């Protein structure tokens, strides 16, 4: 989707220590527990774009996607396999942990 130039927003919902280990450049970093406070900002950024949530392996990003949908952001998907799958399949320069 990124290579195709699609309008997407990557939202990393991991903890700071995880984010410091490995990250996808350009992703917005907001830990899962901070999403409610960041909702106005996210609603603005999601306007017209698909929001893709990510975490380590996919469980927290799925929780984030459900929360965002329930909060009115309809165009949300969770990245299956998380940053671990990203590192394995897309960009091996991203460290695995």
Give an overview in words.
The chain has 97 residues and is an alpha/beta fold. It has one domain: Oxidized Rhodanese, domain 1 (3-Layer(aba) Sandwich), CATH 3.40.250. It is built from 4 helices and 4 strands. The protein has a 4-stranded parallel β-sheet, covered by helices on one side. The longest helix is centred in the middle third of the chain and has 12 residues. The radius of gyration is 12 Å and the shape is globular.
Number of domains: 1
Give the N-to-C terminal Cα separation. 25 Å
**Shape, please?**
globular
CATH-defined architecture: 3-Layer(aba) Sandwich
The helix content is 25-40%
Main sheet: strand order: 2-1-3-4
- Unreliable sequence segments: none
The quaternary state of the protein chains shown equals single chain
CATH class: Alpha Beta
Round the Cα radius of gyration to an integer and report it. 12 Å
Please state the structural category: alpha/beta
What portion of the residues fall into strands of 2 or more residues?
15-25%
The largest β sheet comes out as: 4 strands, parallel
Named CATH topology? Oxidized Rhodanese, domain 1
Write the element-wise H/E pattern from the N-terminal end onward.
Answer: EHEHEHEH
Number of DSSP helices? 4
Number of strands: 4
What's the topology here?
Blueprint: E1 8-12, H1 16-21, E2 28-29, H2 35-45, E3 50-54, H3 59-70, E4 76-78, H4 82-89
Parallel strand pairs: 1-2, 1-3, 3-4
List keywords for this structure.
about 100 residues, 4 strands, alpha/beta
In short:
The chain has 97 residues and is of the alpha/beta class.
